[in-house]
Each structure stands twice: as structure tokens, then as C-alpha cells.
Amino acid sequence: MVEPLQIVEESASEVSIKWSDDIESRFTAAALRRSCPCAGCINEWTGEKMLDPEKIADDLTFRKISLVGRYALNFDFSDGHETGIFSFKYLRDLRV
Question: Which residues 6+ apart lie within 8 Å of 12 measured at CB?
């Protein structure tokens, strides 16, 4: 299993993750917000995306980034959204 070795908040709007397989992922706050896997953004029963990505501002920032146990990150976005739990597997597989 690939695990994060280093998580760096590069700026108020960008985070990078260096993985144990030497791959580095870089994410903007806006891209992560548009990809939020929470029940408010994705219908739990159908998997349908409920969030309109065009309503997310490109200049969105992080207010806070927190570890969730040893398996995920939680992002508190400047638009007030903070309910998504982004597992490390989800982040590693995410292509934004």
C-alpha cells in the first residue's frame, strides 16, 4: 500500500503530498473542493455528483488542513465547507 511520507501546505491554496513510491501529488484547494467525496457533494446511494463544480471559485483557499487518524485528511475550505474526509487512497488515485 502506498502511504504519504510528507504533506506540505505549499500556500494557502495548494498542498503537496510525497508518496512512498516517490510520486508527488499537488492539489489546489479549488480542485480538492470540486472533488469532495462527502455525502453533501456525492449522493451516497447513487454515487451521483451533487456539487456543481462551476460554483467553486478558482481562488478558494484552505483555512485548515487536519489529519484524520492515520488514513485521511480533512480540509476546511474558505467557502465554509469542511465535511469531506479525503482518504489517502482517494487522494493518491485522484487525478485533478
Answer: 29, 61, 62
DSSP state of 56: S
β-sheet bridge partners, residue 76:
64
CATH number at residue 52: 3.30.2020.30
Residue 2 pLDDT greater than 90, yes or no: no
Name 50's Cβ contacts closer than 8 Å, sequence gap at least 6. Answer: 40, 41, 42, 43
pLDDT of residue 95: 86
Q: Which domain holds residue 25?
A: 4-93
Q: Looking at residues 50-54, what average pLDDT do you find?
A: 95
